[in-house]
Amino acid sequence: MKPCNLLVLVTIASSLALVACELAKPTDGEKAEDLLIFTVGTDETDGLKRLKRSAEQFNVKLIVAGLGEKWNGGDTRYEAGGGQKIRILRDALEPYKDRSGLLVMFVDAYDVILNADAKEMIERFHENFENNRVVFSSEGFCWPDKTLAAKYPLVKFGKRYLNSGLFMGYAPEIYKILTVRKIQDSDDDQLYYTQIYLDDKMRTDLKMTLDSMARIFQNLNGAEEDVEVEFDDSGKALAHNVAYNTHPVVIHGNGASKRYLDYLGNYLGNNWNSKTGCVACNEHKLNVDALSNGGQLPLVTLAIFISRPIPFLTEFFAHIARLDYPADRLHLYLHNNETHAEKEVNEFIAASAYESTNFVQRSSEITDRQAKEGAIDYCIAQNCDYLFYVDGDAHLSNPNVLKLLISLNRPFVAPILSIPAKLFSNFWGALSPTGFYARSDDYVQIVQGERVGQWNSPFVGGAYLISKENLAQFRGAYMYNTLFDADMSLCQFARDNGLFMLVDNQNYYGNLVAADDFGDEVQRGRLYPEMWEIFENRQLWEARYLHPEYKQVLVEGAEIEQPCPDVYDFPLMSERFCAEMIGEMEHFGKWSNGKNSDERLAGGYENVPTRDIHMNQIGFERQWLYMLDEFVRPVQEKIFVGYFHSPVEANMMFVVRYKPEEQASLRPHHDASTYSIDVSLNRKDIDYEGGGVRFIRYNCTLPCDKLGWSMIFPGRLTHMHEGLPTTRGTRYIAVSFLNP
């Protein structure tokens, strides 16, 4: 059975009995300014903790009744029930039953947030319901018995039907409602209150009414579009009912609206302030540095999963290796399900020195779900304090990420990670009706860092930290819904069981890698498929494939080498790019024959033939053309001042191979271009001897011996040139004729 899911006037377990007795003593001249709020909750859930925190923020007296009691009221998420709440509330309220001046309020325990102090609640009660003794919240659904709808009194404006999750009134009248008839634990509490309210005599005698326009109470089910967050002049978050232009102060996520309450709860209850930012973020923080200095850091299982083709794993593992956390306080659990990743995975494991390592190899035929369930079991078996889950597409470039997350001291917390320059991230702000992604009103502001704090999210992936206290509850979560993928299953499990998943953007933790289309490049048989990632993962592509000195070329005032008139030489591509480009070309292997006849060209004739492979033959034309426009054109505009052509155009982009026994040199010629580039792809005097370029008109020769450097020079008319003989080995250059 699930714990009662509705909120109820609260009570006194044995630990609160003395407090209750003191409060129950009659007082002289008792004033109606007294207010007690009750709730009924059998388990200390995240939702109940949220309610208690909101009460503390506004210094409201909240009595929680029923903690530790076995729940017999049914699973009220899916069926009628909850009568046990009435019994528990009745017992808790009994000491106060004769206090005619005492106002009491009942709220459900697991899905309610308070957003005002007692003074404001009392004032609203008197201002709006001065002729009433009991006020119930209202909603737009007649539940659980729709046939009773016609019996409800008409209302002038607003919601017509009673909701039992929130009500308020004087203690004697409330107690009479709770005791007017018997109820079983398994009976429905809302039906109980409804039948009393629909009794004309009782409604009149007890002066009962509904808060039809949400002046105090707001039930969200069916009214989510009516309620939004706004901020007052002090920055305090308010719930604004735009339909009635009211600002309710007790918010209830009844029925299917619990996810929307989680969204509102990121702000309400003094959780986040538009002036001062996140109020709740520092309330539970741990001093991890003090733990490190005074003793051992928490023991963590680092669980890494590579369940699909993912680019840039070398960089991923480099970030993992740089985590600022003692290796002897880390247990490694790693599951790889991809052949493409085996080299990087094996190298990482060989170089690691963790306290223990559990490597679940691809050949073990364990599914992704099973592997992730295994990580939970492994962490528990190692008596770990935390499970740190990391997918291969989560690049944790902040080496302090693990310490920072531990310091937040949350049962489940994730770093916000997004794809650079895009809005795609590892969390969702809202859910669609089918359980998939929907964008919340604040999603963009959170992803872009305009709002900073901790955010209760319906879905989290990529990387997250689960504490030891919560870990056992997640057993079976990845198998919970096999219609979804493993992470969606886990998140649905958390939502359905009231386990909050927080995401944090108070620090920059790293970024996500775009991997959705990477498998297509792997399937095409690329040796180095990351070369094709310039569009999807430009930042990583630049870091891996641009020459490390390239950006210095564009610094204002920086000079670019000019070894011959109007012939410049600058660093463009990295050593790794050069090697991988040669590898891809040789892997493709279809070099031209070096003759004038060339079926690859529109006219079928090449005036100055070379042994080459065109970029379009290996499917790299679009990527190379983009590279030329983004990284070569800015250099051209700097050196050939006054010439602009954006985007660049190029039909001839190819890699040339020079070998003494094949084609060693190239006769003098003009390029069919406005300007050209030649990139040296391998090393002179190591991979080959000879080579170089001579510009005929200037009788000027360049050795072209700097790996990854590119010549850039005018094409037709002024810069006739020839390729000098390669005398040993094999020379490779990447040539492009720009703006023909």
Query: What is the residue-mean pLDDT, rounded to a whole number?
Result: 94
The CATH architecture of the largest domain comes to Alpha-Beta Complex
In the predicted model, the low-confidence regions spanning at least 5 consecutive residues are 1-32
The share of residues in helices is 25-40%
Tell me, what is the CATH class of the largest domain?
Alpha Beta
Radius of gyration: 35 Å
User: How many strands appear in the DSSP assignment?
Assistant: 40
Name the CATH superfamily classification of the largest domain. Answer: Spore Coat Polysaccharide Biosynthesis Protein SpsA, Chain A
Shape verdict: elongated
The helix count comes to 21
The tally of structural domains comes to: 3
**Any idea of the CATH topology of the largest domain?**
Spore Coat Polysaccharide Biosynthesis Protein SpsA, Chain A
Structure class: alpha+beta
Largest sheet: 8 strands, mixed
Proportion in β-strands: 15-25%
List the helices and strands and how they pair.
Elements: H1 17-24, E1 35-40, H2 46-57, E2 62-65, H3 83-93, E3 103-107, E4 112-114, H4 118-128, E5 134-139, E6 161-170, H5 171-179, H6 189-198, H7 200-205, E7 208-211, E8 217-219, E9 227-231, E10 237-241, E11 250-252, H8 258-265, E12 272-273, E13 277-278, H9 288-294, E14 300-306, H10 313-321, E15 330-336, H11 342-351, E16 356-360, H12 368-381, E17 386-391, E18 394-395, H13 401-408, E19 412-415, E20 427-428, E21 430-431, E22 437-438, H14 443-447, E23 454-456, E24 459-460, E25 463-467, H15 468-471, H16 486-496, E26 502-504, E27 511-512, H17 518-523, H18 538-545, H19 550-553, E28 561-564, E29 567-571, H20 575-588, E30 612-614, H21 621-639, E31 652-658, E32 666-669, E33 675-680, E34 688-690, E35 693-695, E36 700-702, E37 709-714, E38 721-723, E39 726-729, E40 731-738
Parallel strand pairs: 1-2, 1-3, 5-7, 8-11, 14-15, 14-17, 15-16, 19-26
Antiparallel strand pairs: 3-6, 4-11, 5-6, 9-10, 12-13, 17-25, 18-27, 19-25, 20-24, 21-22, 23-26, 28-29, 29-37, 30-31, 31-40, 32-38, 33-37, 33-40, 34-39, 35-36, 35-38
Helix pairs in contact: 3-5
